[in-house]
Structure formats: structure tokens, C-alpha cells
Amino acid sequence: MVQPQPFLTGLKCRCPRCGKGKLFSGYLKVAPSCAVCGLDLKFADSGDGPAIFVIFLVAPIIILLALFVGATFNPAPYVHLILWIPTTLILSLALLPPFKGVLVALQYRHDAHEGHQ
Ligand SMILES: [Zn+2]
């Protein structure tokens, strides 16, 4: 069986083994197991990983957009607040599930887990 691409299945929030079943049962809650292939998803623990990647991606995007809008239109400061606070929130919340999906898929692919003594 050909293993699905971790980045594609992750971005689509699908099961890392079959690439068909849903990975999440809630917004960021990983399902107990895959409904299609039955893979036990208890191993999935991406911790703070997705948040870090989302911060490192969203922050430069927002900063560049704010600089561009500021230099081009020179709006009043409150316009920046109205523009960038919702944009940051929406972008971050939209990106968290796919990033978590990718990290869980990579964790499955590379059989990564916490160290044991
Ligand atoms: Zn599956």
C-alpha cells in the first residue's frame, strides 16, 4: 500500500495512514481512531508545535501587509487595529488545524514519540 503524502494528508486534516478518514473530531481535537482504516490516533501529540509554526508564518505576513498598507495609504492608526487584529485572529485560527494535521502526519510517518527511560 502506498503511504499518503504527510503534507497533503495533513493539510487536508485526514488520517496519516489511509489519507481518507477525518483526523479531527472537533476544531483541534484529534479523533480517537480513524473511521476508515481504524488507525489508533492516540499517538498523536503535536503539543505546541502547530502554534509555533503558525506564529512564525502569520507574524511576518501581517507585518509585511501592515508596512505595505502603511506606506501606500498612510491610514490613521485605528485603521491598522481594525485591519490587523481580525486578520491575525482569522488567519491563525484557520491555519492551526492544517498545521496540526501536518505535524501529526509527520509524527506518524517518522514514528516519533516521547522518549522513555
Ligand atoms: Zn485511516
Summary tags:
single chain; 117 residues; mainly alpha; 3 helices; 55% helix; binds zinc ion
List the helices and strands and how they pair.
Elements: H1 6-11, H2 49-73, H3 77-109
Helix pairs in contact: 2-3
Would you write up a description of this structure?
By secondary structure, this protein is mostly helical. It has one domain. It is 55% helix and 0% strand. It contains 3 helices and no strands. Helix 2 (49-73) packs antiparallel against helix 3. The protein is elongated, with a radius of gyration of 18 Å. The model has no long low-confidence stretch (mean pLDDT 88). Bound molecules: zinc ion (ZN). Zinc ion binds at residues 15, 17-18, 20-21, 34, 36-37, 39. Zinc ion binds next to loops.
Q: How many strands?
A: 0
What shape does the CA trace take? elongated
Helix/strand-derived category reads mainly alpha
What is the averaged pLDDT score?
Answer: 88
* Whole-number total of structural domains: 1
H/E order of the elements? HHH
Gap between N and C termini, in Å? 34 Å
The helicity comes to 40-55%
In short:
This protein is mainly α. 55% of the residues lie in helices and 0% in strands. The protein has one domain.
